[in-house]
Sequence to fold (400 residues):
Amino acid sequence: MTSADPRALAAAFAEAYGRPAEGVWRAPGRINVIGEHTDYNDGFVLPFAVPQGVSVAAARRDDGVLEVRSLQAAGAGVAVPVDPRAPEARRWRETAPQRERWAAYPAGTAWVLREHVPDGRIGGASLLIDADLPQGAGLSSSAALECATALALCELYGADGLLGAAGRRELARLAQRAEHEYVGMPCGIMDQSASLLCTAGHALMLDCRSGLSTQVPLPLADAGLSLLIVDTRMRHELVDGDYGRRRAECERAAEALGVPALRDVKDLPSALDALDDPVLRRRVQHVVTENHRVEAAVGLLRAGAAAELGALLTASHISLRDQFEVSWPGADVAVEEAQRAGARGGRMVGGGFGGSAIVLTPADRVDQVSEAIRAAYRRREWEEPRFLTAVPADGARRLL
Ligand code: ADP
Ligand code: MG
Fold:
């Protein structure tokens, strides 16, 4: 079964829970074209939704329990009160074994919604989750899981205020809060916004300070281009460690510079002069130039020059590698080999230290480029990378 088939998932739900699903919702993963580690610096990002995503079949229940099962998680499901203040909910948060931890994403989403939507209107539900989105590969399976859950609960319980265009912006914030408060991952707003707001054939230029976004045409196929996602098969565990450290460094730099966020740095040389710590100087150099690269990318796309994005992608990669220091060998090799084989450029994507890279290549060179990367991995005796062609797709929606 693929999770793109809502009827199969509804049938699996009926099998698992012994009653029919009321609906099936799906939220996509995303690829961020450019703008990495800019989101929590109040800057710009340019993601698009991919066709792969997380589907959730769901039905209400009247006992105030949220039960979640996932076809990608071994073992039975997890059942917790939908009221986050219930002692049982607290107890689960404090004592859940590792194998149940994934459930903090959907349960956390339900808990945040329960607190946010007036009158405790969000009640219990049974959920069955299925995904064709690799986890921890930088495609944001976590936000897809949160957003599919959020959409399902809002529709099932008539939280209509969160379902329109403005509502979805708010819903993105709530899903982000779930990840902050219940998963302990201080993520930015990009992943949830992309999953909820993207439209097919477009990227989403998102201002992470205001939350405002605009659709930017991304006609890859028409321009004779393909955007390859290279899953380097090197995994990240971002919850603890380096991601939080990078955020803290950016905050320290902003404070030292007397600006609310690094987005507000206007004069880069003076800012670099003002910082004693060479590490903070490198971080600032990346964030400030990366914001400008997003704006340049949007300009190129609006001008109909998508192929020229390649050079910006590569510049972004070098900055992430040398200034922000979050790249990893699998991504460096993929970007170098891709260019040698005729790609326009590429970069690591996601928080770093593992996950995926993207490569922009003429469509007729996809095979050469992917073979060059594969061969380079073989020479190093690394696990074979996986390739996906990224097609800008629609955001979260109800399927059934
Ligand atoms: P990313 O968002 O880049 O894929 P994260 O580490 O942020 O990586 O989120 C991955 C986590 O999300 C997984 O470890 C798991 O806990 C949860 N998750 C994602 N998809 C599923 C799924 N289909 N079933 C169960 N848990 C999932
Ligand atoms: Mg994530």
The chain has two domains: 6-216, 218-389. The longest strand covers residues 47-61. The chain has twelve helices and 13 strands. Residues 218-389 form a domain with the Alpha-Beta Plaits fold (CATH 3.30.70.890).
